[in-house]
Amino acid sequence: MSETTLGGIAGRMPKFLRRADPAVVTAFACIVILLLLGSLYSRSFLSPEYLLQQLKVASFLGVIATGMMLVILLGQIDLSVPWSVATGAMMACAAAAYGPVGVALAIPFGVLCGVAIGLVNGIGVAYLRIPSMIITLATNAVAQGLMVVYTGGFSPQDSATAAMRYLATGFTIPGVPNAVIIWALIGAAMVFVLTRTSFGRAVYGIGNRERAAYLSGIDTRRIVLIAFAVSGGLSAFGGVLLAGYASKAAQSMGDAYLLPSIAAVVLGGTSILGGRGSYLGTVAGVILITLLQSILSVMQMPEAGRQIIYGVVIVAMLLLYGRAPASR
Amino acid sequence: MKDWRYWLAEQRGTLLAFGIFIVMFAIYSGNHPAGFTANVVQTAANKGVLLAFVAMAQTLVVITAGIDLSVGMIFTLTNCMASWLVIGTGLETAFGVLAVLGTGLVCGAVNGAIVIYGRLQPIVATIATGAVFFGLALLLRPVPGGSVNEDLADFLTGRFFGVVPASLVALLVIVLVVWVPFSRSEFGRAAYAAGSSETAAYMSGVPIRRGKFLAYTLAGLLAAIGGLFLTFFTYTGEAAYASGNAYTLFSIAAVVLGGVSLFGGKGSAIGAIFGALAFRTIGDLLFVFDFDPLWQPLFQGVILLIAVSLGAFALFRVRNRLEWFL
């Protein structure tokens, strides 16, 4: 009965809404509700300055979540995000200390370190068939160990280069922060790769059933390896941007990005089991999470309350539309 | 039929973990400046049982082919709670202990309810509940502090008859009271069956839901016992994010070392306990060899990486390439 009602409503909706994933629509609806709730609290929530500022903060999470989404689409997960972010940031800042050449190579070097972590993950998952949850936890621990040895347990003293600061905080187009442009470019590239290339189709195929993808002639192991390397690289790039934003790297700077990046992808309607999801949903998820964090901090909610509300909201939203089918 | 061969095949992981632990501990105590004395054993036991409890908790969930990424946070939350409640007269302390253990049960039950009846993926669900548990811990202890009934704490972290570490005895008691009855009960078998093949278990009318729910709930209880012991060792409560996360991570490492299959249905908590003790001993090896403590995280990470890569040897037995994909 409920299905016919839904069909009736859908029949009267415009075409683009009818074709949209209900999860993505729900996520966008929640964004609007959050903004309305926020505007009841303070009028400045609807001002363009505030919204742009939020987009800028969201773009760091957006870059990291892009990589996470690629891995989740495969039906895997990347738990090495925290220290990939920190490694990218620290190595970029460290390279900056080595004269002009170091300054020029700071960003690529930071990203490459992330790619290296991702490659280890990818080899473990694709070729050694270790569950991704485990191998990425292990590489996270190793990356942490390396960084602790490198920094001596303290936050490194090297600071970010001017280029990193410009990417994170500068303005190329007046009014639009560079970070937002970068996220838009990476997002556009991701949409292109996922929908217009054989690599993207292979990712969805592997996420649905790796065995079938392998039998249809896809080199599934290479695809998985590349996806993890891209994820590591994007995490590290997110770290580079964050270091530019804060103008230095810090020990636990990546810790705050693991849960949000997974939550953003999953809230955006991407199945955690892989094979299903759209980038638009991830964008919605990233904005939703950033707004939630921002509103909680504007309301001067203490850290404890923020963590609790945050966890509860994620569970509640997943219960709304992220449930697995019943085993009948 | 030769029963002992089946038994050996079934317990291979546990025995391997036991072997690793014995070798590591022999190297450790052999090179320790004080040698193999009751004091050294007591200190090692006190550090080891914390992880052993959390690893047992993780085992229960992993057996059902799930994962609980919130065990470290339940551990932290109960630590903070115990630093408020486990204090005062004998009766007050007893109520405090019960309240702490009850909290652990509730946390575990919440995880179980969300995963089983809410049908969410355990990995995402427990990351989110872990955030909630950490938030509660932070609410209880915004800054480290509190205290604990020191008589009880000293009793449970000391030695019986001057030789036997009390914490090891406590661990043994918990194994006998929680793990043995669970693994031999109908629900324990259901948990194993659900981890082995949920569809087949469902078709055979095994109570998989109740079995899994009990596994998650008892995991919360075991993590709470770990949190209680942490309070006994440190006399304080602290809502430390990094330490909670580290315990979650190490519990997975201990489970893998202990021969518990992450795909579910295989392994035992006994193996995970030896895995935990072995992991702790490996971490402490650095100290007896006078390394800079800065290297410890890297060393533990590499051990973890090697431990999880060992599973890859099974690939050599694969005849058909399609078996790569589970």
Describe the model.
- The complex is a heterodimer of chains A (328) and B (326).
- By secondary structure, chain A is mainly α.
- Chain A has a domain at 60-257.
- Chain A has 15 helices and two strands.
- Chain A has a two-stranded antiparallel sheet with strand order 1-2.
- In chain A, strand 1 (171-173) and strand 2 (176-177) form a beta hairpin.
- The longest helix of chain A has 29 residues, at 99-127.
- Chain B has one domain (11-306): ABC transporter involved in vitamin B12 uptake, BtuC (Orthogonal Bundle).
- Helix content of chain B is 73%, strand content 1%.
- Chain B contains 14 helices and two strands, in the order αααααααββααααααα.
- Chain B has helices at residues 3-10, 12-31, 38-63, 71-85, 90-117, 122-140, 150-157, 166-184, 186-196, 198-203, 208-234, 241-257, 269-288, 296-309, and strands spanning 159-160, 164-165.
- In chain B, helix 4 packs parallel to helix 6.
- Chain B is globular.
- At the A-B interface, helix 7, helix 11, helix 13 and helix 15 of A face helix 6, helix 10, helix 12 and helix 14 of B.
